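note to self — DONT lose this again. spent like an hour looking for the file last time. sequence + predicted structure for the chain T wanted, 306 res
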Amino acid sequence: MSIRLTDQKIVPHLWYDKEAKEAAEFYASLFPDSNITNVTTLQNTPSGDSEIVSFEIWGQKFMAISAGPYFKINPSVSFMVNFDPSRDKDARERIDEIWNKLSDGGTALMPLDKYPFSERYGWIQDKYGLTWQLILTNPDGEERPTIIPSILFVGNVCGKTEEAIDFYLSVFKNSRQGLTARYPKGMEPDKEGTIMFADFMLENQWFAAMDSAHEHRFSFNEAISFMVYCDTQDEIDYYWEKLSAVPEAEQCGWLKDNYGMSWQIVPREMDEMMSKGTPEQIASVTKAFLNMKKFDLEELRRAYKR
């Protein structure tokens, strides 16, 4: 069961050099119930002309931007895809088919195989750098959405997964803890009691997270962020105050939290402005927000009406 897209408050945002539309078209071709919903070009940004692409994959809303080679997507945030035999009789065939398509130009991080936790599971980095965890789920468990963002705490934030989940649960409404599995003794370098896998719900959306003490040559960066759609200035102020922990990262609605995760706190109205505005209105709103750290909703409305 996927939530209605209009209700999706938190939207994963992917940063590409030039490939946002191409990548979105590729993903939409792979998964059922997937399509590109809007393409808008922002002109004269610090990255030049930037293409913004809104798309849906199997009921999960995404946004992507082509904005230059400044950030590179890495496996610290991946997307878990649940293939549930109780919901799809062709789940096993479908997981193999999608794996094979993602393998074209991609790199397997964990081969598609049988593991203690699943009859069929694999972790793959596709040709655009995005990583996917494909899993044949156990239909006896509590139902989960088809696609779940999965956050990997490594390096200096390894061991902080539980603390981070508790923090996010305190910030977002309509939230609850799901499953928690801890590393047992003897799984070095992973420390006993740290999080091997946990999932949790924020604003009625499921996320997963885990610690990994192995050596990884990546960490959270701006290439994958989470957009939080807000209806009022009070709401923008609330999330900004709760989440922002790195003053120098504050720019154009972006912030970084205490764990290095990037968020964008955006007014929902902006989607409407950018998708339905004239080129002049879009240019006016873009010029206004490029000078902002936290978004000022009234100022954006004034720019749109100019």
